[in-house]
Write a structure and sequence with these properties.
Radius of gyration of chain B: 21 Å
Structural class of chain B: alpha/beta
Order of helices and strands of chain A: HHHEE
Largest sheet of chain B: 11 strands, mixed
Largest sheet of chain A: 2 strands, antiparallel
Strand content of chain A: under 5%
Strand order of the largest sheet of chain A: 1-2
Oligomer: heterodimer
Shape of chain B: globular
Strand order of the largest sheet of chain B: 1-3-2-6-8-7-12-13-11-9-10
Largest interface: A-B, 54 and 70 residues
Order of helices and strands of chain B: HHEEHEEEHEHEEHHEHHEHHHHHEHHEEH
Number of helices of chain B: 17
Helix content of chain B: 25-40%
Number of strands of chain A: 2
CATH superfamily of chain B: Amidase signature (AS) domain
Shape of chain A: flat
Amino acid sequence: MGKFTKEMVDDYADKLLIGLTPEENKMVLDEFEAIDKSIDVINEIPNISEVIPMTHALDDFAFELREDIAEESIPIDEALRNAGGVEGREIEVPKVVD
Amino acid sequence: MYMEKSISELHDLLKSGKATSKELIKESLVKSHEVQEKYNAFVTICDDAKDTPVTDELVSGIPFGVKDNYSTKDVLSTGSSNTLKNYVPFYTATVVEKLFNKGAVMVNKTVLDEFGMGGTGTTGHTGIVKNPWDPKRMCAGSSAGSACAVAAGVYPYALGSDTGDSIRKPAAFCGIVGYKPTYGMLSRYGLFPFASSLDHCGVLTRSVGDAAIVVDAMKGKDSHDMTSWDSSNINLTKSLTGEVKGKKLFYIKEIANIDNYPHASKELREHLENFHHILDKFRNLGVEIDEVSIDQTLLNAIPAVYVVLSCAEATSNMSNLTGIIFGPRGKSDKITEMMKEHRTNGFSPLIKRRFVIGSYILQKENQERYFKNAARVRRLIVDKMKELFKTYDGLILPVSSGPAKYFNEGDDAIDENTNVLEEHLQIGNFGGFPSITIPDGFINNLPVGINITGNCYDDANVLNLAYALEGTMNYKGQIAKEVE
């Protein structure tokens, strides 16, 4: 058994609001061990910490601000049409603050 | 059969009045239902699809398919996930809208691995997609339904998306063409995001010429996608001259040399032998092809880099799936429990696994070891490719370790050494490179593929190389036929 535990897996899942069955927990745990092993491959690369991380596919994006012109926004009834609970022009949710 | 023809052929028939858009749609819908029955390729079949006027636009009046992770107004768009099993968007993805505006007719939405996160075509919420060459085998994924339908002759093209190899590997397993242009040539607006820095839109067709036509029709800068760029100076269709004399390609020794696979299966051996045979055909056209050696440590890191980056980005992107704004709601009267119920019941075990891994990777204490180091290796790999692209027009490699796998084989590598062979197409996503797979032969009567990847913005050159190579073989326009 490595450094990962069932409790850790449940904790990370819970942070994402995802529940895991015991079988799913085991599947993740097994995968963690495999990923950790393969990350070792990365850490073997010499002077890796000196490389600037590449966070996107292209390095030469031309970032342009849009003109400050009001555009048509989404019609409220369209925006609400997939919501499971609606009251008037708003999405209905259970009370958030006790 | 109209739907077994190319876009250009269909356009000529429509323009000359020898066929009507209505006839094409009718045939495509009949074929859709047949293919659904046999291979389960679709989430939705648009039986109410209407014909459109035939214009000078090559795609006008012609049916096509859309992967179900593209938003389509008023048409169910599920991402093949239970979390969006009832989601009907109020807008249409830019690339689909562009095709609509040119008169193309969507006839179905195709099955994918849930949210594009898989390479087998087996994790969609409507069940597995079977390979039209052999239903006991997978199409690969995640654009499984699109690949299946194009190969089976439902229509000449379908849209796919590609985060690791999700267009280009299914194309190989189904004996067709799969093309993902340079990152940003196609707007991603309306594509359900999986890993935004790696996600590409693209197309599956039965010829390089059709791939050029469809991407020409879809490309362009989009104010809704800040990563899109102006490609109005590029005309892919007109770039297909077939003139490639003097072009230079390289293949990676560590991936394509049979000596690297001491336990090679018969299929792998034949696949690599065929690859080198095809290279000789290419050389006969005047293309120079060199063997280049790349540090094995860097190559071995490719799958890990992909897993780390894609899981981390996916975890973030999927945080809006709560069942509150869209998707089926949880039943609890407490909001946190309501969202947890939606996510717990909606996501399949396989993608829950990816999210939890992403969560772990993104924890502050783990970011350096996992996320940042993976992003650093991404740069090393991309820099190496860009250095080579200064000398070469492109990288040419075999796709996968052979033909389509049986369902019970999973997508795990059969030999530890074949890991990189299975996953090298991810290089194209790391660097946003244009990349195209075309069929290059048969093993055990099943198709196999070859891939050409080039430098960013050099799509016209990459496609022309693929076009020239396609012309030396007999697989252009082929339709899947079930083998024994």
